[in-house]
Amino acid sequence: MIGKKLVDLLAGVDYKVLQGKIEHEVKHIAWDTRTMVEGALFICVKNRNVDRHCFAQEAIKQGATILMIEHEIDQVPEKVTIIQVDDSRKAMSIIAQNYYEKPGEALKMIGVTGTNGKTSITHFIAQVLSTLGEKTGVIGTIRNTLEGEKLKTKKINPTTPDAIELQASLKEMLDKGATYGVMEVTSSALAQNRVYGMAYQVGVFTNLTQDHLEEHGTMEAYGAAKLKLFKNCRIGIVNQDDLMAEKIKQEGHCKVITYGIDKKADFKAEQIHQGLTGVDFKLIYLGKQYSINFPVPGRFSVYNALATIATLVSLGYELTNILEALHWINEVPGRFQIIPNTKGVLVVVDYAHSPDSLKQLLQTTKDLISGKLTVVFGCGGDRDTSKRAEMGTMAGAYSDLTIITSDNPRNEKPEQIMADIEKGILEVKGRYEMIKNRKLAIVAALAEAEEGDAVVIAGKGHETYQLIGNQKWHLDDCEIVSNYLNA
């Protein structure tokens, strides 16, 4: 990347020069000392766990010639320029956009937010756009891609990247000929101002249910973070069946188009019929009725299909062309992913890791089988503890057997997480077992399953690792299932 003048990067930022001059050339921008190069601008961002001001001296040793800070730092060499700002995260977002020449303004940006469904809707929108001839990039939980090919820009964050990684990814997409960028926009990204200053053609809202309270504290704060997207987009595609819809209509700064099943909406689904290979429904739009066959099972898939259709219509594409493109939709890895087998057992691997998504997953699966339903799941460590018992309640209420196991325990004891889940199952007197080793838990569920039964393995979906302490170990739910069933 060619260097940029610091004064140009600061355009749009409120700042004060504490030391040095702003005519410097900036050869790199970073908030992580591990990515430093000589002549870099180091931004001292703060989050819940780490204050990067503590790493300023290390950044200087690694080559930083400019520091951006919120509060003063002692013993900074005179050769280092110091810029002070009130909010380093907001400043970093603007600087990253300036450094990479504002790729989000050249791309048509679509942002998808909500508790559940972000990944699926993002991928469905991108697939339809590609079928309609648009070169489309995707940024999200699974990986960052352009037309299905992984971007060269290293993916560090699990879903919405930090501002620097995001702008670098968008720049790469643009340079390779993309016309659209479709991205998941998490509540954390919105609250932490990772997308501050960006404008979206379309913002999509899926739903708001309990999750991420370790980050936001309350559901009100969680909802307020989601709302930010609809103050920075031209069109809002909103799930009318969710209570958050009215708040978006009242407080958002965009034209709102609604979709839903239960309430009157611009795009409404009726006469829903589910099957193993997908879901059929009638789309009601502008007084006309259209027959839809969406190749992904589940009532939740109807919402995902409606959001996809509404988004593409809002962008000016013909409905008939959109509906034709839906036939070419591929499943999203780890999202109601059915593992083929010859034993007559429905085995589903899914990323569901909130109470509502687990409930929806189990209800959908139960409707597709004649036998018993077993669910294997755990909860992530160092994350919202209040949802664990609730997820246990959902598992106990909607399955015949729950096997509580380990997810990504991180720095918590798996036994404590499992005990938290157990409390919820006990409340509904659900049948359960506790097997800490996730592989053994999955194998135990498969061993008990008979023809006509279903085994749902929830929580990790597409992930191929398990986080224990600060270590990442190989663990792939789909791989475990396939190896066992094909042994």
From TrEMBL:
* Protein name, per record: UDP-N-acetylmuramoyl-L-alanyl-D-glutamate--2,6-diaminopimelate ligase
Task: Name any Gene Ontology BP term.
Answer: peptidoglycan biosynthetic process
Where does the chain cross the membrane? none
Instruction: Write down the species.
Output: Cellulosilyticum lentocellum (strain ATCC 49066 / DSM 5427 / NCIMB 11756 / RHM5)
> What's the top EC group for this one?
ligase
Q: Where is the Mur ligase C-terminal domain?
A: 334-461
An example Gene Ontology molecular-function term: ATP binding
Pathway noted in the entry: Cell wall biogenesis; peptidoglycan biosynthesis
Where is UDP-N-acetyl-alpha-D-muramoyl-L-alanyl-D-glutamate bound in this sequence? 33, 159-160, 186, 192, 194
Domain Mur ligase N-terminal catalytic positions: 26-100
Which cofactors must be present for this protein to function?
Answer: Mg(2+)
> Keywords of this protein's UniProt record, alphabetized?
ATP-binding, Cell cycle, Cell division, Cell shape, Cell wall biogenesis/degradation, Cytoplasm, Ligase, Magnesium, Nucleotide-binding, Peptidoglycan synthesis
What's a single GO CC term here?
cytoplasm
One Pfam family matching this protein: Mur_ligase
Explain the purpose of this protein: Catalyzes the addition of meso-diaminopimelic acid to the nucleotide precursor UDP-N-acetylmuramoyl-L-alanyl-D-glutamate (UMAG) in the biosynthesis of bacterial cell-wall peptidoglycan.
PROSITE patterns in the cross-refs: FOLYLPOLYGLU_SYNT_1
- Subcellular localization: Cytoplasm
Asked if Nucleotide-binding is a keyword of the record, the answer is: yes
Q: Where is this motif: Meso-diaminopimelate recognition motif?
A: 407-410
Q: Which domain of life is it from?
A: Bacteria
EC number(s) recorded for this UniProt protein: 6.3.2.13
So what family is this one in?
Belongs to the MurCDEF family. MurE subfamily.
